[in-house]
Amino acid sequence: MNDQRTEDQQQESPVSHPTHRRTAAGCALLAALLTAPVTLASPADAVTAAKAPIVDFNGDGYADLAIGAPGATVSGISEAGYISVVYGSTAGADTAHPKLITRATNGVPGGLAEGDAFGARTAARDLDGDGYTDLVVSGYQHPVVLWGSAQGLSGGAAFAGTTYQAAPGDIDGDGHADLVANIGGALEVRFGPFTRAGVPARTDTLVFDDEDGPQDFTVGDMNGDGKDDVLTTHGFEEMSYSSRYWQGTSTGLSKTAKPTGYITVGGVIADVNQDGYGDFIARQVDHVSEMREYDAGAIRVVYGSSAGPSTRTALITQDTAGVPGVGEAGDNDQNYGDQFGYALAAGDVTGDGYPDVAVGVPGEDIGSIREAGSVVLLKGGASGLTGSGAQAFNQSTSGVPGVSESGDTFGASVLLADVNANNRADLALGAPHEDGTYQDSGAVWVFRGSKTGLTTTNITSFGPSSLGAPQKGSLFGLGFAH
């Protein structure tokens, strides 16, 4: 999920506070994942620009999906967690040949542990430079890196060092993938290429004061120099501060920051107006360290420039002209807000060259059905990101498989990736609290991209049961690897 948190934040959401019909175990696990230190981030996790290398574990040119299911019971061990890999193909997501990966999978270091929540955090990039995307996966134990190959993911190594969050990029612009890691009070850049033992070529550390460390961050190139930059989120207890821009240089991150002027969490960086500079799109909040489950939600667009964040910005909500729906805040413990912007992803859905942005709205009420969830697609263009031509979908939309149910949190995770390699990004969307045979088993939908936007034609939908994976309380679809 894009909204990462540390133990100091104590933030909640409709994903971690579902309605009464949700299982206690599923609620407890989500609350723990969102408030305690974890090792690596995924999605909604921090992501890089829309034109970043695709996640392609087997190198066949089709984007692959790595789907987290951190709540699953594996071999009788509760909340051990797993990752399901669904490879892309000319027909789209190939659900007939999935790969299940746990800490008990041959070649994966470590072993199953109760409450580990393996798969809660992921980061994907070609770390060793062999042409295949690799996958870093973690739960509450140390992370592991799984190596890509012509046969897909196989084998791995214990990943060096403990982190609270990590995201891939190329900070020094040398063409080798780097990882930016939150190691608790500091950002550490681990420069590639990595060895097969998971060791980086070198490291560089950006240290903060005890009460000023980053609580989450986003990686991408805002100033158009070919080096990825970092945007950090800051807050401590009741205090919240503007997000900050740290420029990537040939030696590492700059040691001085430029404030954006806005309090944000999570985010993506994508050049939505194609002017050569990456734009920062993030959820705008009043407070970083307070609960936000009652928020209607809003996203702030900070446009890039040769100096990084510029003074040109825009605020988009469900009340913005052209955006479907109405922004609704929560009012009590049984009625949470929409949380427009809870999850964000960027990619060119229409094939017009402009990145579009998928916005998860997991707290959206569908009629009288509370927190059923929805997703909104905002389209990029020469004028930037606007509400013009925006689309919205939920499980009650004609052509979308399934039925809207209270607390499904449809849209809690989103990913835009071209799984059928037709030069249009497809939308993968998770509803971790969707019920199958069991409560909170979770499910994923893949919408096709088209010239006019997302389409309900040929939607693929699946849960753990259809992949032969553990179901009970798995929270399948909690996040996707970026």
Explain this structure:
The protein is an all-beta fold. It has one helix at residues 24-35, and strands at 65-69, 82-87, 94-101, 121-125, 134-138, 144-146, 156-158, 165-169, 178-182, 186-191, 202-207, 216-220, 229-236, 239-246, 248-249, 252-253, 258-259, 264-270, 279-284, 299-305, 308-316, 343-347, 356-361, 374-378, 391-393, 413-417, 426-431, 443-450, 453-462. The protein has a four-stranded antiparallel beta sheet with strand order 4-5-6-7, with no helix packed on it. The protein has a four-stranded antiparallel beta sheet with strand order 8-9-10-11, with no helix packed on it. The protein starts with 23 loop residues before the first helix and ends in a 20-residue tail after the last strand. The model is unreliable at 1-22 and 30-50 (pLDDT under 50).
Reported for the largest beta sheet, the result is: 4 strands, antiparallel
Low-confidence stretches: 1-22, 30-50
Percent helix, as a range, is: under 10%
| Topology as a string of helices (H) and strands (E) | HEEEEEEEEEEEEEEEEEEEEEEEEEEEEE
Number of helices: 1
Report how far the terminal alpha carbons are from each other: 11 Å
Return Rg in Å.
20 Å
> Largest sheet, order of strands side by side?
4-5-6-7
Secondary-structure content class: mainly beta
Beta content comes to 25-35%
Global outline: globular
Q: Would you tell me the overall average pLDDT?
A: 88
Please tally the β strands and state the result: 29
